[in-house]
């Protein structure tokens, strides 16, 4: 059972069962577990099945809602997913803005950019509106323009639905909420929905025009290359999905958490499909030793070459993607698939950490040192787990 139900990381509890962190108030709004009184006084029902909820807030680690009269830890199937959908809709309707991914077609100098990506403000959010044969999660409207918003919680938007969206030629995006950490706070969850969670275009009428234009112009070479690279691209997309769905199993991550640096790892960068483990693991592996050295007064140095060596030692590189030519890489990227070589993935991540003030560039884009640690980070993990 647990094997065929993908775990909702954000809402998973022990034994692979999903736990509920949102209840529905009498007025239909969503209440986060952090906002309610313990017990039946939470005055909430399950958004999935309507059963009265009990707020279980005893243990500090695992606050959640239980179904009243039902054994602990066994919410209904629909509860957690329905709850997150309702909350996401509520957030959109209240904030009326959304980060949109870039809309590009092709790669290289001839690349067409329909929208560079960025925050998109809209006038209204229409919830649960039927549109022809489909019911999108949310439709946001700006003037006469409509954008369909789908949330991926446990199931990606299926092909039949995408085909209908394409047939109606509606702009649509999918926001992937499946990888949120279990202890995501309400404000972080809002930010994930509006801006930080991975998102992609399912369809855009402009893209269709651009593609038609490209074919008219006779962009045959691109197309031939793209076709040849289709199996490679599919394999890469599948590899990305695989690592995103993995649970963390790396001890280095515990050390990173102990240093209060959890936000420094698990960063999605182009190239994550080149590894056999989730970004959180290989990033933690690279960072943990350097941070330990910095904490003991040394120079916590990270280099691209050293990082790749460590990753390779553990067998965490997928051979198929570690030596692609530039032409192959470009062909994998041709439909916007965020591919990059492993070394660039490491460098992009380290550069992100430099922007976060965790690392300091110390060379020609291939070496970094750990910034001075705070007192809390110096203290380090309480356990003595080591890789
Ligand atoms: Zn329920």
The radius of gyration computed from the alpha-carbon positions, rounded to a whole number of angstroms, is 23 Å
The general outline is flat
Q: What is the average of the pLDDT values?
A: 84
Tell me how many strands there are.
16
Distance between the termini: 32 Å
- How are the strands ordered across the major sheet? 9-10-11-12-13
Provide the domain count: 3
> What is the H-and-E element order?
EEEEHEEEEEEEHEHEHHHHHEHHHHEEH
Tell me the β content. Answer: 15-25%
Can you count the helices? 13
Largest sheet: 5 strands, mixed
Stretches where pLDDT is under 50 for at least 5 consecutive residues are 1-17
Task: Report the helical percentage.
Answer: 25-40%
Q: Which quaternary structure do these chains form?
A: single chain
Ligand inventory reads: zinc ion
Structural class: alpha+beta
Question: Would you mind describing this structure in some detail?
Answer:
With 387 residues, the protein is α+β, with helices and mostly antiparallel strands. It folds into three domains: 72 residues, no CATH class; 126 residues, Trna Endonuclease, Chain: A, domain 1, CATH 3.40.1350; 157 residues, no CATH class. It is built from 13 helices and 16 strands. Strands 9-10-11-12-13 form a five-stranded mixed β-sheet. Strands 14-16-15 form a three-stranded antiparallel β-sheet. Strands 1-2 form a two-stranded antiparallel sheet. Strand 10 and strand 11 form a beta hairpin. Helix 7 packs across helix 8. The longest helix has 17 residues. The protein binds zinc ion. Zinc ion (ZN) binds next to loops.
């Amino acid at each position: 059972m647990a094997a065929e139900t993908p775990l909702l990381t954000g809402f998973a509890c022990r034994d692979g069962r999903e736990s509920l962190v949102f209840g529905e108030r009498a007025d239909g709004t969503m209440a986060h577990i952090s906002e309610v009184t313990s017990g039946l006084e939470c005055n909430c029902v399950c958004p999935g099945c309507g059963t009265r909820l009990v707020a279980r807030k005893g243990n500090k680690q695992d606050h959640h809602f239980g179904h009243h009269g039902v054994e602990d830890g066994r919410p209904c199937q629909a509860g957690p997913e329905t709850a997150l959908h309702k909350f996401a809709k509520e957030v959109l309707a209240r904030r009326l803005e959304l980060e949109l991914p870039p809309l590009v077609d092709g790669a290289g100098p001839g690349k067409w950019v329909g929208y560079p990506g960025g925050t998109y403000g809209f006038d209204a959010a229409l919830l649960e509106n039927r549109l022809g044969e489909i019911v999108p999660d949310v439709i946001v409207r700006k003037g006469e323009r409509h954008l369909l918003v789908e949330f991926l919680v446990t199931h990606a938007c299926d092909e039949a639905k995408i085909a209908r969206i394409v047939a109606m030629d509606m702009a649509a995006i999918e926001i992937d909420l499946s990888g949120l950490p279990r202890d995501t706070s309400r404000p972080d969850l809002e930010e994930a929905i509006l801006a930080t969670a991975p998102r992609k275009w399912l369809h855009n009428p402009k893209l269709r025009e651009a593609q038609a234009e490209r074919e008219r112009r006779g962009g045959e070479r691109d197309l031939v290359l793209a076709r040849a690279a289709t199996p490679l691209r599919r394999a890469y997309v599948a590899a990305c999905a695989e690592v995103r769905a993995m649970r963390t199993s790396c001890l280095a991550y515990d050390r990173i958490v102990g240093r209060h640096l959890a936000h420094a790892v698990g960063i999605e960068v182009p190239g994550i499909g080149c590894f056999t483990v989730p970004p959180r693991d290989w990033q933690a592996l690279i960072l943990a030793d350097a941070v330990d050295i910095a904490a003991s007064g040394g120079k916590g140095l990270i280099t691209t070459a050293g990082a790749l060596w460590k990753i390779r030692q553990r067998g965490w590189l997928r051979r198929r993607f570690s030596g692609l030519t530039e032409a192959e890489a470009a062909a994998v990227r041709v439909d916007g698939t965020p591919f990059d070589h492993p070394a660039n993935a490491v460098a992009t991540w380290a550069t992100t950490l430099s922007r976060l003030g965790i690392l300091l560039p110390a060379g020609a884009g291939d070496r970094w040192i750990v910034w001075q640690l705070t007192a809390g980070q110096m203290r380090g993990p309480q356990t003595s787990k080591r890789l």
